[in-house]
Structures are given as structure tokens and as C-alpha cells.
């Protein structure tokens, strides 16, 4: 299947449509703004002139009556609303802009500047808010300008905390690193990538500050700390109180209207900022009965999915999906990224995002239709009858809680007491082959494989009948993958578990599952035993998947002549050490060596494979080669010069969903490297798309990345890497997120580009079969060192180092 012919990805971001409660808040705020903007134009009296008898009651001429000096109260309230809302909106605009600027600067600069900012924020936030504002207002004088300044000074601190946390994540995001690797300046990266992603957080902060500013201004003015001459809702209340309106019946038309308007403005902003819609979030099928008996069961499996349809707004993600797993069976659900695998798992557990809607179908667990259960009944099913090992399970653990606490929690939520839960945690840790001393450890103290085992222990805590393992080996090296797969197989046999194994890695699951279901674009295209699908596939997609499997032995797919041209990349005794902060050094932390004297070379037109386990230093070396990582020792020469961002080396990042923002258009993504160099060329961008096997017409140029499939996204990443005409291409696990057929397509594309443009490729992977077929030479890394280098076939067939032998044995199992 060519990339141009690939269908759209069937995933979507959650809808950002306002909820019903937020719509009510928006209507209130909109009406208030209209009232104070246009209302004063409709009253015939200026707010400060005497136009009626003091304390005159409401009449048609003066609907709210008059105050004690004969001023029309309606006119004062309408004009005063302009000041009250202006204080809130101006304060919100200034404080939010200040908080955003400081948060981004703090996240970008880090180090001493970040520490100084956050300690200053801590100091302000420890002070009581209202007394602080009152003291500052009394000291600096009573005026609305002073009030705005004081409110801005105090109200920016909380948004900085929240925005900085997100900005730090964005600062470390793959798409940020990708932009920096092209030579993008801090300003370019901030405005192009960080700021657009912060907007969904900035808007609620603006609303929250406006809400607080209006309320605080009213309180200060009521206390006499506002401008006594200018009218606002707060000063109207101040004068009413000072002139004994509360002692007469004048309070009904002098005090109540501004008080109600203050309350309405605060309420409207609160609803707009924090409204929660009444959309269905539990995944109950519309019209289904609540006792789980919505329809007649058809099969006999332990878990059955029947005709499940799910959509995100107007986009359908699952089209009548059906599958059946027998008790004790392991079923492999195969599909590329965006095919709907994880969406189906979440639908089965009814933990779909708010924007998703299950439109029909049933999910049978024994004789119970899960889609017809009440929320409370479904909560008892999760964990107790169906356990989930979530995708990216290594990141699913709470970083501030111990292993014991997290495993025990999975038991206590189903009614066990604390002592029983702690004892069960020790049993489960032994079950997943971890020592008991790991119970008191925090997630950051565990290796990737250990964290994955803890995630499995949590999923098994309440002794479920069914285990859903969603991409449980993603991001793990081949040795850890093997141990996790062996563990799951052993647990399935020992505990009699029914296992739904979700993955896009066909060769890995084909040896472990009794049955396979192939999912493509939200539809089941074929199912059957692995042997039957391999020998007699009916669907073209199934034939493509099995035909694309690269055998570990046999004839090599890509054979190239030995390159004779000069050295393109020279890495000489490179060391990289991650230093620790001063405070961490005081607590005993030591610098962490990531690279220890690494030396490799790569010739023009050569493909050098870099393999090794997670944490071996592969990505650190890749970042150093493209100029994103400073060296502690040694030197790197790329095409005769030291590496630098935007230089002759460019990188294809591992995850096409993380290395490019989904909201960007294809044309903007591919053009960005040239734009950074000040030579943006649509012609170059279109040519790069052609080279990557993608359409280059205006329609595709304007497509957003969120509408593309995984294979199309990765080809866009290749086009972006090619547009600046690099000499060296660093490909960091470029196929790990793709299914089998798309992996082969991408490798064929890279080979065509290598041959056409004469570029060298540093190919990073943990897939030894793939490295053997695609690479000319292989370098094996372990714990920051190169332990073995040689021709690809030589390494695979006659490895000398025990670590390489162990990798090969695990990959060939």
C-alpha cells in the first residue's frame, strides 16, 4: 500500500465544543458586556448629574430611582459596569500575559532563573490573598489604576505554576526538539510550537483571573479603597453603605441591582471557566438497559464484542467491530497506529473520552452486557473482572507513591482492608518475579522492565478473569520484551487468564496468540489462527502484513556494495555525563554517565545500524550527532565540521505523533526547516513530499497532521528531514510506531532516498531482524559503550560479545 493511497486515520482529538453549563456562562457574560457597552447610550442622564429628588422611588423616568444626592441609579450602574468589567478584563489580560511570558521563560531557561522565579511565586502564594491586597491598596492609594497594578502583581502567581508545568513538558516534547534540531531559535520554537499548545490552558487562566479581579475590585471599592469619584459597582455599594441606604427602603433599588450584577458576572465567568457538559462519559449505549441484559447473547466466549460502533463527533472510529475470545485463550488484536485498537479497549471498559460516543453494539463478559450496566455496576467490573495493562504503562505509575501503595490501592478500591491489601501487594510482586525490597521503591528507582511488571501486578491485583494488555512492550528493548512476553504467557497459563493482547508488532504476537484479529481503519478485515492467516490470508491487508515480515535468517533484503567514498560521520571517544543539581549532590546523588568513550564512523552512502537496550545511550548519541546534546569529552565531526542544529545532519524522530504537532498543516511542517534558514520555498517542500511518496498538491499541502494515518505522518517527517538537503540522516526508531507493511514501505523509501541523494543513514533500532536486512554494518551499545561492531550478517550470524548473543537469542526466540 502506498502512502498516497492510505486512508485517513480514524482517530480524533476530543471535541472542544462548549458544554451546556459553559454555554450558560457565556450567555451571561455576553449579556453583561452588551449591557454595559450599549446600555449607557440608552439612558438620558449622565451618571454624575443631579436629575431627580434625593431618594426618589423608581418611576418610568428613573427605573431604579435616585440616590441621596438625586443622581439616577440606573445610569450609575450602567456606566459603573464599564469600570468594573474593565478592571477585570484588563487585569486578566495583563496578568495572564505576564504569567505566560514568565512561565515560558522559566521553562526555557531552567536552572537558576527557574529556581528564582518559583521561590518568588512560593513567597507570594504563602501570603493571605485578600489581606495582602487590602494592605497594598491602602499603602499605594485609592485608584483603579493602582487596583489593576496590585491585582496583576498578586494574581499572576497561580497561573505561572500551572503554565510552567505544561511549558516544561512542551520544552521537552519531540516536536520542540525537532524544531531546535533544524536550527530554530528560542523565539521561533516558542511562537511556532509552545505558545499554540499553551492556548487551551491560557484561556481558562484568563477567565479565572477576570473572575477574581471583578470580585476583588468590588470588595476593595466597598471598603473605600477604590476611586471614590469614579463609579463602579463596588463604589456604588460603598456610597450606599456610607449614606445609610441600608437603614431605609432605598436599599432595594440602590444596593440590590449592583450586588446582583456583581454576582452574575462572577457566576458567568465561573460557569464559563469551569463548566462541565452533560455529555455521556461512561460509554453507555443510548437506549441500553441498565441491568446488562440489553440484547440476546450470541456466542459462548469469555469475552465477546458485538457490532460496536464508536465516533468522535462526526468522525467514526469503530465500524461494527466484533470479536470473541474463549476462556483461557490469548487473542492478538493487530493494527497500525490509528486503527482503533486502544479505542476498542477503552470502549470495552467504558472509559472513553467525553467527546467519544458509543452508538451501538454490546460487550459481553460471560452473561453480562457491559455497555448496559449502570456506572456503579461498571466500576465494580473494572479491575475486579477485567484488568488493564495500559499503553505506555511505564508512564502510568504515580511518581510520588511507592510500588506497595499503588498495588495495594488496586485491592482496596474493591473493598479489602489495608492489611489485606499490603499482604496482597507482596504476593503480586512475587507473582511478577520482582524482589520484595522493590515494594518500598518509587517508579523512578525501577528499570523500564520492572515498571512494566508493576503495571501488570496492578492489573492482576483484584484477580480478574480477563486481562487487556495494550501495547505492553512498546518502548522496551528486545531482552525486556522477551521477559514481559514470557511473564504474560506464564501468568495466563497459571491463572487461567483470558488475554486480549493489543499490538502493531505482528512478528512478536504471532508466536504467542492462539487467534489473531486484524483491525484496519476501525474495521475487522480478517480473523483466524496465526497459521491460517499466514498460509491462506483472504484480505489484501493481511497478505501485506505477513508478506512484509523480515525473516531473521535467510537472504538479506538490501545488499549494497561496500562504500568507497570518504567518512561522513566520525565519533571519537565521546562521553556525555548528566550532571546533578547542587541540592541533589548534597543528598548523595552522583553524575550519570550516558556515553562512555563512544567511537564509530560512517561513510557517505552507508547505513550504520545502532542497536542496544533501552537506556544504552542510543538516543543520547543521536542527539549529540545533530547538535542538540553537549559533549563532556571527545569530538564529533559531520561532513568535516562540528555538529550544530540546522547543519548537515538531520533527524527523523521515533514517534510521528509526538514529533509533529497534530494541529499544523502539512505544508507548514515540511517548509519549517527552510523557513528557519530564511529561505522558505514551497517548491522545495513539494519536491520533498514527492520524494517521500506523498501528494504535493494544494489539498494535501493544506491537510492537518491530525487527519493523516501513522504511515503518512512518518513520510511527512521524512519529507521534513529531506527538504534542507542533508548529508546525514539520523533515523531514531523510525518504524517502531508502524505496522509491519508500513515498516517495509518506509525502509524501501529510505533506501530509495539514500541511493538517489547519496546520503548516509545512522539507523537506530532495537529490531535486530530489521537491522540485519537494512543496515550495512551494526554497532551494538550497552550502558553507554560500543561493545561490538561489524558487518550486519557477521554480527547476526557470529556475534562475539555475550550481550549481542543474548539480544540475538531473544529476538530469534
Low-confidence stretches: 1-16, 275-281
Number of strands: 19
Q: How big a fraction of the residues is strand?
A: 15-25%
What would you call the structural class? Answer: alpha/beta
Oligomer: single chain
Question: Strands of the biggest beta sheet: in what spatial order?
Answer: 6-7-8-3-9-10
Mean pLDDT: 84
The helical percent reads 40-55%
How many individual helices? 30
What is the 3D form?
Answer: globular
Main beta sheet: 6 strands, mixed
Rounded to an integer, what's the Rg over CA atoms? 32 Å
Distance between the first and last residues' Cα = 29 Å
Walk me through the structure.
The model is unreliable at 1-16 and 275-281 (pLDDT under 50). The chain is globular, with a radius of gyration of 32 Å. The strands form 4 sheets. It has a 6-stranded mixed beta sheet. Helix content is 46%, strand content 16%. The chain has 30 helices and 19 strands. A hairpin with a 2-residue loop joins strand 9 (515-520) and strand 10. The two termini are 29 Å apart. The longest helix has 37 residues, at 73-109. By secondary structure, the protein is α/β, with parallel strands linked by helices.
Essential attributes:
813 residues, alpha/beta, 6-stranded mixed β-sheet
Give the secondary structure arrangement, pairings included.
Elements: H1 20-38, H2 73-109, H3 111-126, H4 129-140, H5 144-155, H6 157-171, H7 174-181, H8 186-222, H9 233-242, H10 251-254, H11 256-274, E1 303-312, E2 315-325, E3 330-334, H12 341-349, E4 356-365, E5 368-369, H13 375-381, E6 386-389, H14 403-412, H15 418-431, H16 448-459, E7 466-470, H17 478-495, E8 498-503, H18 506-510, E9 515-520, E10 523-528, H19 530-535, H20 540-547, E11 567-578, H21 582-586, E12 592-603, E13 607-612, H22 618-625, E14 633-638, E15 649-652, H23 666-676, H24 682-691, H25 698-701, H26 710-722, E16 728-732, H27 740-757, E17 760-764, H28 768-774, E18 777-782, E19 785-791, H29 792-797, H30 802-811
